[in-house]
Amino acid sequence: MPDFRLPDLGEGLTDGEIVTWLVSVGDHVSVDQPVVEVETAKAVVEVPCPFEGVVSARFGEPGEKLPVGAVLLTVGEPTAGEPAEPTTSGSGNVLIGYGTSDDTPRRRRRPRNPRESYVQNPRVLRSEHPNSTLGTPAIPAARTAPAVISPLVRQMARENGLALDQVEGTGPGGVIRRVDVERELTARTAPVGSGRRIPLRGVRGAVAEKLATSRREIPEATVWVDVDATDFLAARAALPSVSLLALLARFTVLGLRKFPELNSRVEGDEIVVLDQVHLGFAAQTDRGLMVPVVRDAQSLTTAELASAIAAHTASAREGKLAPAAMTGGTFTVNNYGVFGVDGSAAIINHPEAAILGLGRIIDRPWAVDGQLAVRKVAQLTLAFDHRVCDGGTAGGFLRFVADCVESPIIALADL
Question: Which of 56, 73, 176, 54 is nearest to 120 (CA)?
Fold first, then answer.
């Protein structure tokens, strides 16, 4: 009977934490059927099995961290007298990329409708230990588990001893979101003096480590400038499929063409100026701050760049963004104005050399042709690694982007 081991998930990841089992002992699995959701330092991913047969053993429980190479499942014979063998043609045995790219049809799990995708399989609630009191489903067969927006929300409730059937969901169709669980936990908070511990692991831990490394290693400096964003907003209104962040990203790419020193990194005693712009952008999700990366942004039109940013943002918020889509960035942009703040001394996304941010856009008095007028004004902020350039280069880049914001038509000729 073959053992299915936790595969190499790529991008230097060495372990993963079990979030949710998608199969139980006794279930039949087909080739490339996802069998478990695993959280890495980059994302939550579904891991497919390269074998076909019946699950005879399962190793690890939700919340347990396993190293790459640890046994996840043992798969027995699919039918009497017919041994299970790994597929050698098109199967994702190694599973970098989380599945196969072969177009040959295979039997897969029945597609679930949107509401079903939130509901945990009741079979996962059965225990595989004969002496356990959880040998039967934890909920009646006629009912389904509470609809939850992501496995991480279910895990948060479990770690805090909170029964989800006691939580009122505020999402579509009553789906329980992270804010609903946090609200219920806050309501149950004990008297002053006690608290709740949040482990620094998974995505939160990876972000914490990267930010700490940035502060230790990068001697950063910050420059900023106020800009008249009136025409910037007008351009956004004329292009409904292009977000403000996408416009800012486009101006950033143009600026890096003129000031390539900011699209670089320090390696040992050398500055490596990079040819490709792999543009990262900050995206707030239920699992915390993520930085998806649009690769080769320098070769995209404004419309293509906007489409890529929108797709990556949706995947990040749904927990479906692959780890490879959050690594390899060379420059980061951030629209922190959505949080209602004017400016920010942002931390550079190590090992990049700079990060550009846009604050909120509000009405302010502004001199126009010698006359005082009310205009839409915002602040642009650039934090940069002082090892790769001086203030003249950083200021020149920021002034160029500011000019694009104030006269956006010059940056949109490719539409």
Answer: 176
Containing domain of residue 299, as a range?
203-411
Nearest to 345 by CA among 236, 147, 249, 336: 336
Amino acid sitting at position 268: G
138 and 225 both lie in a single domain = no
If you average pLDDT over each of 84-98, 197-211, 331-345, which comes out highest? 331-345
Q: Got the DSSP string for 154-186?
A: HHHHHHTT--GGGS---SGGG-B-HHHHHHHHH
CATH of the domain at 290: 3.30.559.10
Distance CA 387, CA 218 (A): 8
Round to whole Å and give the CA distance between 213 and 385.
13
Partners of 54 in the β-ladder: 28, 76
Same domain, yes or no: 253 and 379:
yes
Query: pTM higher than 0.70, yes or no?
Result: no
170 and 72 in one domain?
A: no
Domain count, the chain: 3
Q: Cα-flanking dihedrals φ and ψ of residue 395, to 5°?
A: -65, -35
Q: Please tell me the chain's helix, strand, coil percentages from 3-state DSSP, rounded to the nearest 5.
A: 30, 25, 45
- Average pLDDT of span 128-154: 54
Both tokens of 151, joined, read 């496995």
Residues 387 and 247 in one domain: yes
Tell me which residue has tokens 């952008």: 281
The tokens of 59 are what? 């190793």
Which positions are catalytic? 386
Q: What is the rounded distance in angstroms from the CA atom of residue 57 to the CA atom of residue 73?
A: 6
Does 220 lie in the same domain as 170? Answer: no
The proportion of the chain whose per-residue pLDDT surpasses 70, expressed as a percent, equals: 79
Residues 222 and 302 in one domain: yes
For position 162, what pLDDT does the model report?
85
Q: What is the CATH number of the domain that holds 23?
A: 2.40.50.100
Q: Helix or strand or coil: residue 38?
A: strand
Structure tokens at 39: 């959280």
Q: Cβ neighbours of residue 187 under 8 Å, at least 6 residues apart?
A: none
pLDDT confidence tier of residue 126, bands split at 50, 70 and 90: very low
Q: What is the pLDDT of residues 158-176, one digit of tens each?
A: 888 888 888 888 887 788 8
pLDDT of residue 392: 96
